[in-house]
Amino acid sequence: MPRAHTSELVRRAYDAGDAQAAITLLEQSMALGHRRIALIRYLQAEHLHAPLDTRHHDYVRDIAARMSAATLARVVGEARTRARRAHDPADTSTTRDFAHDPVAGHAG
User: Fold this and answer.
1) How many domains does the chain have?
2) Residue 67: domain span
3) pTM, whole model, 2 decimals?
4) Residue 43 lies in a domain
5) What is the residue-level pLDDT of the chain in tens, covering all 108 positions?
6) In a domain, 24, yes or no
7) Would residue 22 count as lying in a domain?
8) What spans are recorded as compositionally biased (Basic and acidic residues) (predicted)?
């Protein structure tokens, strides 16, 4: 996928709250074997209530299981920050919660 198309999808997923764009980005990451960015994109898709399926959950659960707790916490924190900035660029706190726990595999 051309970089310009990826950039457009990122804008749509974060600035416009486009759940389908978030899924497309996640699937792109899965196809390329990404780990950290796939987890971030999964959390954004989850945040947007995108229709994620078993393969999405399984991919991210496998990634999370291979990360240390500290690394996982940093990646989840980065995802929270990205989601929050999309809604309020002036907000620098890290308190946004995501409904899905990719490590435990269930709603939190």
Assistant:
1) 1
2) 3-87
3) 0.77
4) yes
5) 789 999 999 999 999 999 999 999 999 999 999 999 999 999 999 999 999 999 999 999 999 999 999 999 999 999 999 888 776 555 444 443 444 445 444 443
6) yes
7) yes
8) 78-90
